[in-house]
Design a protein that fits this description.
The protein folds into 2 domains: 9-146, HUPs (Rossmann fold, 3-Layer(aba) Sandwich), CATH 3.40.50.620; 157-296, 3-Layer(aba) Sandwich (Rossmann fold), CATH 3.40.50.620. It is built from 9 helices and 12 strands. The radius of gyration is 21 Å and the shape is globular. α9 (272-288) links the parallel β11 (262-266) and β12 (292-296). With 305 residues, it is of the alpha/beta class. α3 (97-104) packs parallel to α5 (130-136) and α8 (247-258) crosses α9.
């Protein structure tokens, strides 16, 4: 049965780097698959020089030259993409990168950004821009690692880590939207990762008390199957798996095991400390992920009650 696409506008943030070109290629692939409009966006920041301990703005003519150069690059990229049959718009606004990108993406169905490298310095930079975009964007964010530059492709295998929260449910829904019409080759792997707290069974929660892992694992498997039911009914091939371990490490290992084209996950857990914990997992997965990562958050924070 034919499905109507839920992806109508794909936005990609570009700084014209090699990694941004890779993100643009992924965005174009998604737009092409859905017949969606692609918007190229550049956050223009005023050029400056650093004279410790201050940042000194350059004269206005440097800023105008930078703006004109960015506009030429945007127009050239847009023209090339239009030649491939995609509807393309290009825009840019001045301001801090993360804030400007999040604001511009308000009407997008998917926002695509590049994630630079894995060195410490690059991760710090990623944390200041891409990680903030992931945390704050109201639409799903597709983060494309440096290693995926030139590897854009149709999405067939999706790994969905889930803690059974509403954010995780939204990630499943977003993955289905991005996948588009179901085909025989499309597969979803639902993964639940659990961790035994340090000290469990050794004075935690009380001396001599062992955690009931058999019951816990059985409940996790039951919830995984419940999550899988509507996906199977929609025609997807679904695998479920639960594993113990560090969530970010296990997610990375499972993505490699199944040859995932995409990891789709929520950015927050259910409440309180879990929300902070799951958010940190999403940000830890991003720099080292073996494939693109689709993150989803709710627009209104969930109550702790």
């Amino acid at each position: 049965m034919a499905q109507r696409s839920k992806v109508h506008k794909v936005m990609v943030a570009t700084d014209f780097s090699e990694n941004a070109r890779g993100a643009t290629a992924w965005a174009a692939e998604i737009a092409r698959a859905h017949g969606a409009r692609l918007e190229l966006f550049h956050a223009l920041q005023a050029p400056a020089v650093v004279l410790a301990p201050e940042i000194v703005p350059l004269p206005p003519e440097f800023y105008e030259r930078d703006r004109e150069h960015a506009r030429r690059l945007l127009d050239d990229q847009a023209a090339t993409l239009r030649e491939s049959g995609i509807e393309v718009a290009a825009s840019m606004h001045s301001g801090p990168a993360a804030d400007t990108i999040v604001s511009a993406a308000a009407g997008a169905d998917v926002l695509v950004v590049g994630v630079r490298g894995t060195t410490l310095l690059e991760r710090i930079f990623v944390g200041s821009v891409a990680a903030r975009v992931v945390r704050e964007a109201g639409c799903p964010v597709l983060a494309v690692p440096k290693e995926q530059v030139g590897a854009h492709r149709p999405i067939h295998r999706v790994l969905v880590p889930t803690d059974f929260s509403h954010d995780a449910e939204r990630a499943v829904a977003a993955a289905m939207d991005v996948l588009g019409p179901v085909s025989d080759a499309k597969r979803i792997v639902l993964l639940h990762v659990w961790t035994i707290p340090a000290g469990a069974g050794v004075g935690w929660p009380a001396a001599g008390v062992e955690p009931d892992l058999t019951s816990f694992v059985r409940d996790a498997r039951r919830q995984l199957e419940k999550t899988a039911e509507p996906l199977r009914a929609a025609g997807f091939d679904v695998e479920t798996k639960e594993r113990e371990g560090d969530p970010a490490r296990v997610i990375d290992e499972e993505a490699r095991r199944v040859g995932a084209d995409l990891i789709a996950m929520g950015t927050h857990g259910r409440s309180g400390l879990k929300r902070l914990f799951f958010g940190s997992v999403a940000e830890r997965v991003l720099p080292a992920a073996p494939c693109a990562v689709l993150t989803v958050r709710r627009a209104v924070p969930e109550s702790n009650g």
